Amino acid sequence: MFGASYTHVPSNSLYIYAPKQLPSDHNSPSLFHFLCSQIQLSFQSIPEMETFLFTSESVNEGHPDKLCDQVSDAILDACLEQDPDSKVACETCSKTNMVMVFGEITTKAKVDYEKIVRDTCRGIGFTSADVGLDADNCKVLVNIEQQSPDIAQGVHGHFTKKPEDIGAGDQGHMFGYATDETPELMPLTHVLATKLGAKLTEVRKNKTCPWLRPDGKTQVTVEYRNDSGAMVPLRVHTILISTQHDENVTNEQIAIDLKEHVIKPVVPRRVS
């Protein structure tokens, strides 16, 4: 853990939690913690009431989790494009300048897995070892086998079952819920975290912030009040942005740019 500076300020202003010294690995994300009860914007004072904090986070396309998701998704798409009956259980993992794809796939499609990996990484922006992964020169490991006969028989009977009788394997499914607190019908924390992540990617790709690198994560905490069972957002409490960056950019410049080009265009002046 590297040293950090902390200054107490009034609750209606902004403070920056920034490392005094960057990690030796300049590709490691540097953490900037924006505590924004108002983000230097005006909010009315809130009387005492039953309130709580709720946090959502979103990772950028260059984050290892999202990179791996996109590679697996691209392989699935390539299989389904040629063979709609493809059965794909594909996993991807990555480390510095290496991507590995493994799993069980049953398909009639002819898929160049290595090309898909490199094309996906290149499209995200991993084009140099300086950013942790070079799409054209990184090591790509592929270990794909046919789906096991037992699973194949149980799931789709080796294509002997009718479509309505085809089952699913043990793949996980994520689920959520709708809420009327935003036009998107999603929790405000999720909407803001996702939009901040998208803006972070946008200002990287259009060179507004040329010091940005692909990996990044955003996290938003909102204070809510309980209004007879309805959760009503009151204010943005905390914004946290962790981003990969060029080794030569200063902490001060990162803070200024993220506030002006990422936070202000996304976070509303009022949330209720």
UniProtKB/TrEMBL annotation:
EC supergroup of this enzyme: transferase
Biological processes annotated in GO: one-carbon metabolic process; S-adenosylmethionine biosynthetic process
Reaction it catalyzes: L-methionine + ATP + H2O = S-adenosyl-L-methionine + phosphate + diphosphate
Pathway: Amino-acid biosynthesis; S-adenosyl-L-methionine biosynthesis; S-adenosyl-L-methionine from L-methionine: step 1/1
Similarity remark: Belongs to the AdoMet synthase family.
Span of domain S-adenosylmethionine synthetase N-terminal: 52-149
Annotated organism of origin: Cuscuta epithymum
Cofactor(s) listed: Mg(2+); Mn(2+); Co(2+); K(+)
Residue ranges constituting the S-adenosylmethionine synthetase central domain according to the UniProt record: 165-269
Name recorded for this polypeptide: methionine adenosyltransferase
Signal peptide: none
Record-linked Pfam families: S-AdoMet_synt_M (PF02772), S-AdoMet_synt_N (PF00438)
Lineage: Eukaryota, Viridiplantae, Streptophyta, Embryophyta, Tracheophyta
